[in-house]
Automatic annotation (TrEMBL):
Molecular functions per Gene Ontology: NAD binding; UDP-glucose 6-dehydrogenase activity
Keyword vocabulary terms for this entry: NAD, Oxidoreductase
Residues at which substrate binds: F155, L156, K157, E158, K210, F255, I256, Y257, P258, G259, G263, K331
Protein name: UDP-glucose 6-dehydrogenase
UniProt entry tagged with the keyword Oxidoreductase: yes
Known pathway: Nucleotide-sugar biosynthesis; UDP-alpha-D-glucuronate biosynthesis; UDP-alpha-D-glucuronate from UDP-alpha-D-glucose: step 1/1
Domain UDP-glucose/GDP-mannose dehydrogenase C-terminal: 324-428
UniProt record, GO biological process: polysaccharide biosynthetic process; UDP-glucuronate biosynthetic process
């Protein structure tokens, strides 16, 4: 099938590439000329495992093209996807300006009946707004062309996006017209062979499903962080508690890791946007508000541990101290630093007068773009280089390569011989046996 995709970010680029990989003919449209030019030359703007070779192969095979020409994209597609950003507005609600701009563009250039598929995460009722924006633009041209607006929320995980897209858990299709559902079933058939993964529903339920999924996952994380904070105070170890509850299949092992707070482009904004929708419809979202409040507090927790350590000694807090920071991305296997806990930590370290020597396997360019050059920030080429001249180590992202460091080398390198483990990836006994002080999250023994 011929497909056009508006938005060539994490969702649009991965979706377009996977659709091309199974034989569809895909044109990706973006307003970012530099991104489009780069993609045409095989430069992938994001880090996503497995993506680069797939983009190059499908582009070379002529099944995946990139353009800024919206009219050409719309003329190409039998199906048009909207996969542009929906960042938080000032009040926390989803900013629909990009989605509605694409809708107007579609209305301005539509020449044939079309299935318009919204993949962006949008509040309930957005499909109606998209429909109205397209209809208005068509009416302004004096055209009457039939089109459907379908909600097809995306559940891929950054860091695993290609695998998620090629082997989805479920394909949610929210539509009011069975013919539009049939078109999408045909499009997704190559991903839907061994069992039927399509969950059909009405449009509003599909829009809410995406928020419900992310809010549930964020709730699990905030719940564990809450228990971790209790563990810290009562002298219990959250890691033992985690083992004790994860074995219950009703609870499960996923998403019960305490840490430095959730970040990324989705959980923070989606929890906020859902809470905002609830309030707009007259419901006070107590649980969602708490999930967000716990997370905001948790993002400051690592620094609180650091401060507590340094306030105890003869030092003047962290002033003049140098911290090696391992991990900047909001989670491993991505270069995405949107709402990453590392950003709060760095700001707090800098406010306290400390210097940060940072290393991340993939997010260094993104960090340079965000922070620019500053005297209290040193970009390092490796994890061990970050230790040079540092007083303490802070682990913020649990990249696999940080899991088994040479603790002896750490002790020799770190002036104050102390490790702050924001992801509980180390065994306290092992670190302490090497002569280092250890702080984890929710490990009462380190208080
Ligand atoms: P992104 O910011 O990485 O990419 C958005 C792209 O849209 C950018 O390249 C931008 O230039 C382009 N764009 C903006 N306006 C445009 C227009 N008028 N025409 C064409 N292109 C335009 O965003 P993302 O992370 O891919 O997220 C897209 C949507 O999918 C959001 O609603 C997000 O919540 C949702 N989502 C994201 C993820 C994720 O893991 N990133 C997962 C599921 C759902």
């Amino acid at each position: 099938m011929r497909v056009a995709i508006f938005g060539t970010g994490y969702v649009g680029l991965v979706t377009g590439t996977c659709l091309a990989e199974v034989g569809h003919d895909v044109v990706c449209v973006d307003i970012d000329q530099a991104k489009v030019d780069g993609l045409g030359r095989g430069i992938i703007p994001i880090y996503e495992p497995g993506l680069e070779p797939m983009v190059k192969a499908n582009h070379a095979a002529g099944r995946l093209a990139f353009t800024t020409d919206a009219a050409a994209g719309i003329a190409h597609g039998q199906v048009v996807f909207i996969a542009v950003g929906t960042p938080p507005d000032e009040d926390g609600s989803a900013d629909l300006q990009y989605v509605l701009a694409v809708a107007r563009t579609i209305g301005r250039h539509l020449t044939q009946p079309m299935v318009v598929v919204n993949k962006s995460t949008v509040p309930v009722g957005t499909a109606d707004k998209v429909r109205a924006a397209i209809a208005e633009a068509l009416a302004a041209r004096g055209e009457e062309i039939t089109f459907d607006v379908v909600s097809n929320p995306e559940f891929l995980k950054e860091g695993d996006a290609v695998a998620d897209c090629m082997r989805p858990d479920r394909i949610v299709i929210g539509a009011s017209n069975p013919e539009a559902v049939a078109v999408l079933r045909r499009l997704y058939a190559p991903f839907n062979r061994n069992r039927d993964r399509v969950v059909e529903m009405d449009v509003r339920s599909a829009e809410l499903t995406k928020y419900a999924a992310n809010a549930m996952l964020a709730t699990k994380i905030s719940f564990m962080n809450e228990i971790a904070n209790i563990a810290e105070r009562v002298g219990a170890d959250i890691e033992q508690v985690r083992q004790g509850i994860g074995s219950d299949p009703r609870i499960g092992w996923h998403f019960i890791y305490p840490g430095a707070g959730y970040g990324g482009s989705c959980f923070p904004k989606d929890v906020q946007a859902l809470a905002r929708t609830a309030s707009q419809y007259g419901h006070q979202p107590h649980l969602l508000d708490a999930v967000e409040a716990v997370n905001n507090a948790q993002k400051g927790h690592l620094f609180a541990l650091i401060q507590r350590h340094y306030d105890r000694g003869e030092d003047e807090g962290v002033r003049g101290k140098t911290f090696a920071v391992w991990g900047l991305a909001f989670k491993p296997n991505t270069d995405d630093m949107r709402a990453a806990p590392s950003r709060r930590l760095l700001e707090q370290l800098w406010e306290g007068g400390a210097i940060a020597r940072v290393y991340d396997p993939e997010a260094m360019n993104e960090a340079r773009r965000i922070f620019g050059e500053r005297e209290d920030l040193v970009f390092c080429d490796s994890a061990y280089e970050a230790l040079d001249g540092a007083d303490a180590l802070v682990v913020v992202t649990e990249w696999k390569q940080f899991r088994s460091p040479d603790f002896e080398r750490l002790r020799k390198a770190l002036g104050d011989a102390v490790v702050f483990d924001g992801r509980n990836i180390y065994e306290p006994q092992e670190i302490e046996a090497a002569g280092l002080a250890y702080y984890g999250i929710g490990r009462g023994r380190s208080l």
